[in-house]
Amino acid sequence: MNQERIQAAICNADTDGWLFFDFRKSNSLAYRVLGLSLDGFYTRRWFYYVPAQGEPTAIISAVEPHVLCELPGRRLFFRSWGELHHLLEETLQDVRRVAMEYSPMNAIPTMAKVDAGTLELVRSLGKEIVSSANLVQLFVAVLSQAQMEQHREAGRRLIAVKDALLRSIAEHLRAGQPLTEYSVQRDFLARIHAAGVETDSAPIVAVNAHAGDPHYGPSESDAAPLREGDLLLLDFWGYLPQSGAIFADYTWTAFLGARMPEKHQRVFEIVRRARDQGIAFLRERIEQGQPVQGWEVDQTVRDLITTAGYGDYFVHRTGHSITTVEHGDGANLDNLETRDERLVLPNTCCSIEPGIYLSEFGIRSEVNVLVLEKSIEVTGVPIQEELIPLLA
Fold first, then answer.
1. Secondary structure, 3-state, the chain
2. pLDDT band for position 227 (50/70/90)?
3. 141 within 8 A of 345, measured Cβ to Cβ
4. Tell me, what's the pLDDT at 133?
5. Burial class (CB in 10 A: 0-12, 13-18, 19+), 259
6. pLDDT of residue 226
7. pLDDT (tens digit, 9 = 90+) per residue, 176-193?
8. Is the pLDDT of residue 302 over 90?
9. Average pLDDT estimate for 191-210
């Protein structure tokens, strides 16, 4: 635990302190921020209060005196629920506002780690509770320079694998050799691993109507064949096999033929322009030093697709946080599934991936963005600028 860094963040957040609560490892964010191992033995409730200034306080069950022993500050033990309430009231007696892992109206479910009853308990003591969502980001989403370079390298390798796979698909089609979504997925996964990239699950390989399902995954028994004239979507991700390595995550589409249908080309162009609009909006805000919330990026992308007549077919958020997990706990670019009012912070990574999903096909274009102190960097270059006619 970095007490100095946590207290500096609390001061900047205009709150009196940060109150962590857990029961049986239900608050994974608290463990990550405080540097606690999830391998420990926790069966009782605990609180850990970090004030903006001064000594932290741990409130621990007498049944488990070992809990939180690695953290600084005074340690108070309770036996009964009445003692727990008394110690909590005593600890917070001079406190007006505290941050906790909750999300008002459950707007950001990944931040909602404290149960409603515990929130009621703290409020019954006359305390105002604010969400710790922006505080949490500082400790679980901000990347080191080494992690950003790991992300870049993973992206370079994944794009090279994608290029080789598309060449192989074209060769098989020209030779009349059978392919299915599943066989291509297995080949894709083997190539990713051969490139020294790890992944938590197999890539998405989808053609035609299956590409209209954003999270489609082929199986051996029901995979569609790949044929000339099909629309192919590839969504692929991975990370380097190094400690703390960050994911890279991209989506490309290709046309398995020489002459593309006009509708395919039109939809791709809308998606591409929306993607580039999101990149430009985020870049302008960061370069001007202006704060930007996740929902704002989503809305500028969504407005373009809606104006083009396809708003009902853009069924997911514009982008997600990327950390040591593919979908991280930083700000998402989202004003659809949630209204994410968290700030997009410097030294974080996110995807920008608008898509249009129709009954006959779907198109998504996904890039990753490293948000730096005064600029942004799009990774996985070159990014897709046109729908690829694979057999041209």
1. CCHHHHHHHHHHCCCCEEEEEECCCCCHHHHHHHCCCCCCCCCCCEEEEEECCCCCEEEEECCCCCCCCCCCCEEEEECCHHHHHHHHHHHCCCCCEEEECCCHHHCCHHHCCCCHHHHHHHHHCCCEEEECHHHHHHHHCCCCHHHHHHHHHHHHHHHHHHHHHHHHHHHHHHCCCCCEHHHHHHHHHHHHHHCCCECCCCCEEEEHHHHHCCCCCCCCCCCCECCCCEEEEEEEEEECCCCCCCCEEEEEEEEECCCCCHHHHHHHHHHHHHHHHHHHHHHHHHHCCCCCEHHHHHHHHHHHHHHCCCHHHCCCCCECEECCCCCCCCCCECCCCCCCCCECCCCEEEEECCEEECCCCEEECEEEEEECCCCEEEECCCCCCCCEECCC
2. very high
3. yes
4. 95
5. exposed
6. 97
7. 999 999 999 999 999 999
8. yes
9. 97
Number of Cα atoms under 13 Å in the Cβ half of residue 343: 16
- Token pair listed for 232: 């192919």
pLDDT at 388 over 90: no
Interhelix angle 294-307/262-287, rounded to 10 degrees, is: 150
Structure tokens at 101: 């892992």
Question: What pLDDT sits at residue 1?
Answer: 84
For residue 82, what pLDDT is reported?
Answer: 97
Domains of the chain with CATH codes: 3-140 (3.40.350.10), 145-389 (3.90.230.10)
The residue-averaged pLDDT of 320-347 equals 96
pLDDT of residue 392: 83
